[in-house]
Each structure stands twice: as structure tokens, then as C-alpha cells.
């Protein structure tokens, strides 16, 4: 059995419900969970490295406060709560550029704890999984995340940025050629890049996804809802590629689409939770 986790980044208080509905109704109807990496208190003037406004703010209208808590959009909250297939993941705090690459442990802890409080005020159970903006974390951020979460999803791991006590586990992961590993109770998952991206030719997306899933036991597929509406334009070809992916996943008996939380709750079987986390099983040697 292959396991796939859909991770969509950057849902926030300014995300139009219509965008999520257009993208993911076909997933929800097929019982495929969608993990929404959600910004708890979005900076309404967030910018990219080049100073351009972040793409996830394209639907912003009128004068906005400097920050919008996820609790400030009752329409979005009602929609998310009405559709159990959406699973909320903690995504940064305000999505300031490289906000979790900083080295200040006190500030990092503050942002994590404040972010959790924003979710709780919105009536959302504190997420068990964390995603840092731009997949960038400092050594201090790794340590603070490990205190609060069971799963960290990121793009890659660099030895020099990891806590020194994690180095043996990381080196074992590298020697075993596994994309995923564990330190204590924290499961650390990497992903094969943003395969579902508007920067790729739509016809190449599904073959790339199929190849990636074939090569490992657990695959995290990362995308960004706003890319399908980049510049305020609905990109139908890209949306069609997403929906083709949903159809293929739903009709493949050898693939199970799960949430991050599901990974914590897998029941012992011929493929056990421990094997998935450690990659010790022969059939999961590429994990």
C-alpha cells in the first residue's frame, strides 16, 4: 500500500470559500482528505523576498487591518467545519518572510503559542502538524516545534540547521536513503517539491506525481490554492490537472490518501506504523 498526503498551503482569513470549493469538491466527494496548511493570523501586507505582495492575498479588497485572525472570517470557518475532509495544519504565524528561520527561541515560541490560540478561538482543535512558511526553519525553530507538534512537514533537511542531538538520527536517515524520519515523538516528513504548480506544464503534472508515488511509501504532495487563481485569473488547465490527480488517486486500489493525523493513528498491520516511520520494513526501504 502506498500512502499519499495532500498538503495545500496558505489558507488564511482572506481566502475565498469559492476557490477552495472549486479546487477540492472533487476530492471531498471521493473521500480524499485535504490538509490545509492554514495561517493563523495572516499579515495582510505580507511580501515575498523581492518585495512583491504574496500571491495568497490576491482576493484582498478594501482597507484591511495589518493582520487578520483566522477567527475573523465566519463564512470560511463555517465552510471548513461543514466539510470534514478538510484537515487543518498549523502554517507559521503571520507568514512574514522566513519568519521561522529566525534564531530567537523566545520569539519563535511566542509565534507558535499565539498561533495555536488563534485556532482555538476559531473553534479549531489545535493542529498536530506544523508547516513553516517557505519550508524554512532554524535550529531553534526545530526545537520549539518538537515541543508542540507530532508532525513536521517540510521540503528538505540540512544538517547544519538541525539540533546537534538530532544529527545521529539524520545521518541514519541519509544512509538509509529515506525521505522521512523521526526524532523522539516528532515525525519529520519531506516532500518531492511542488509538483502541483502553475510553473509546470499541466500535462506533465500527473506523470510526475505517479513517478514520485511509485518511488516511496509515503508521499506528501504540496500545492498552493492561490496558484490556480494566480493574478486573479482562473487557470482551468492547471485545475484540470489537479482534478485528474484526484480521479487517479481515488481509482487506484494500491493507494490510500490520508491526513497527517491519520499517519499517527495507523493500526498495526502487515505494514505497521513503526515501519512507516522508521523505514525498516523491506517493502518500505525507500521511505
Provide keyphrases for this structure.
287 residues; alpha/beta; TIM Barrel; 9 helices; globular; disordered C terminus
How would you sum up this structure, described in words?
With 287 residues, this protein is of the alpha/beta class. It contains nine helices and eleven strands. It has a single domain (2-284), classed as TIM Barrel, CATH 3.20.20. It has helices at 17-29, 74-82, 105-121, 139-148, 167-176, 202-214, 236-250, 260-264, 273-278, and strands at 2-11, 34-38, 41-43, 67-69, 86-91, 129-131, 151-153, 180-183, 186-189, 218-224, 255-258. Strands 1, 2, 5, 6, 7, 8, 9, 10 and 11 form a nine-stranded mixed sheet that branches. Helix 4 links the parallel strand 6 and strand 7 (151-153). Helix 1 runs parallel beside helix 7 (236-250). It starts with a strand and ends in a 9-residue tail after the last helix. Residues 268-276 and 278-287 have low confidence and may be disordered.
Helix content: 25-40%
CATH superfamily: Glycoside hydrolase/deacetylase
Q: Please tell me what the overall shape is.
A: globular
Number of helices: 9
Rg, rounded, reads 18 Å
CATH level-3 fold name: TIM Barrel
Strand proportion, as a percent range, falls in 15-25%
Provide the domain count. 1
Highest CATH level, the class: Alpha Beta
Largest sheet: 9 strands, mixed
Unreliable spans: 268-276, 278-287
Instruction: Name the CATH architecture.
Output: Alpha-Beta Barrel
Note the gap between the termini: 12 Å
SSE class:
alpha/beta
Tell me, rounded to a whole number, the average pLDDT: 93
Q: Please give the number of β-strands.
A: 11
What is the chain-wise order of helices and strands?
Answer: EHEEEHEHEHEHEEHEHEHH
